[in-house]
Design a protein that fits this description.
Layout lengths: L5 H7 L6 E4 L3 E5 L7 E7 L15 H15 L7 E4 L15 E5 L9
Antiparallel strand pairs: 1-2, 2-3, 3-5, 4-5
This protein binds adenosine monophosphate and zinc ion.
Length: 114
């Protein structure tokens, strides 16, 4: 946990969020500025600054992907398709320094991203 991290505050219930999924190690909530009809942020409860901070041998990334699959099914975008995105670092577009994945779906997404 990091005292002033906004995603840690969401996990602690100090900031509001619209919960989509929660288990022992992962929390998922609706993005406050959605870029698609379905836009969910999936985060580990343990604070990592970015994906680079995850230790070798951790299963958290694998578990996040499993959770993403479940959310895609639950929100009915599994059949139509969806995108799971991790932004890492400044040039990668990461604005919140707590590891997170974006699950985007519900419309036809373009490639390449900007
Ligand atoms: P990134 O730019 O990859 O770091 O993504 C951070 C995401 O967190 C952005 O899509 C924001 O809209 C989202 N976000 C920031 N603050 C909140 C919040 N309080 N509740 C929900 N989503 C948030
Ligand atoms: Zn954090």
């Amino acid at each position: 946990m990091s005292d002033d991290c906004i995603f840690c505050k969401i996990i602690r219930g100090e900031l509001p969020s619209k919960k989509v999924h929660e288990d022992d190690t992962v929390y998922a909530f609706e993005d406050i500025n959605p870029q698609a009809p379905v836009h969910v942020v999936i985060i580990p409860k343990e604070h990592y600054d970015s994906v680079l901070s995850v230790p070798a041998g951790s299963d958290i990334i694998s578990h996040i992907h499993t959770v993403a699959n479940r959310i895609a099914l639950k929100l009915d975008v599994a059949d139509s398709g969806f995108r799971l995105v991790n932004n890492c670092g400044a040039d990668g577009g990461q604005t919140v320094p707590h590891l997170h994945y974006h699950l985007l779906g519900g419309r036809s997404l373009q490639w390449p991203p900007g």
